[in-house]
Amino acid sequence: MNPQIDLMINPTSPGVSTLATILKASWEDIGVTVNIDSQTPTAFATKFNTGKYQSALLFESAGAVAAYELRKKMTCGSSFNNQHICIPGTPDLMKKLDNAPDLQAQQPYINALVDAWRASSPTIILYRAQFTAVLAHSVKAFDYASSTTFYNWGR
């Protein structure tokens, strides 16, 4: 019998349905049966936040959002840890990271957290989007950030 995955998606998120279909076809080529479980935004959020799903297709970006998501996932038992992940030893590392006075002192704890995440995370990156920009020859400068910094919000 083939392994089976129930992949929960919120089809109102841009590109999610297309990406889920591509992933389904790819997995089925290697013998994994995939059921795409389309949920309304409310049902998706409820199931996701209560941990009542097998797998979910999420988009996580870089920068501040990634740091926020990592902190949630490294905080065992927190109501904000909506993926219900608990990696032993990481709460103590997070406390030490919080008390480190500067980036140089923080770096060993960040490295240890990343190592713990890589060794024990129950999540897998299925797809990583690459930002692409095509600019006219007349464009002399271009700035891109995956997360707009606060001081640019009003521009």
Write the topology of this structure.
Elements: E1 4-9, H1 16-29, E2 33-38, H2 41-50, E3 55-56, H3 64-73, H4 90-99, H5 103-120
Contiguous runs where pLDDT drops below 50 for at least 5 residues: none
Number of strands: 3
| Proportion in β-strands | 5-15%
Radius of gyration: 19 Å
Mean pLDDT across the residues is 82
Tell me about the biggest sheet? 3 strands, parallel
Described by the principal axes of the CA atoms, the overall outline is: globular
Q: How many domains, in number, for the residues?
A: 2
Structural class: mainly alpha
How much helicity do the residues have?
A: 40-55%
Distance between the termini: 56 Å
Explain this structure:
This protein has 155 residues and is mainly alpha-helical. The chain folds into two domains: 59 residues; 85 residues, no CATH class. 40% of the residues lie in helices and 9% in strands. Strands 2-1-3 form a three-stranded parallel beta sheet, covered by helices on one side. α1 links the parallel β1 and β2. The mean pLDDT is 82.
Please describe the structure with a list of short key phrases separated by commas or semicolons:
155 residues; mainly alpha; 5 helices; globular
Provide a compact summary of the structure.
With 155 residues, this protein is mainly alpha-helical. It contains five helices and three strands. It folds into two domains: 1-59; 62-146, no CATH class.
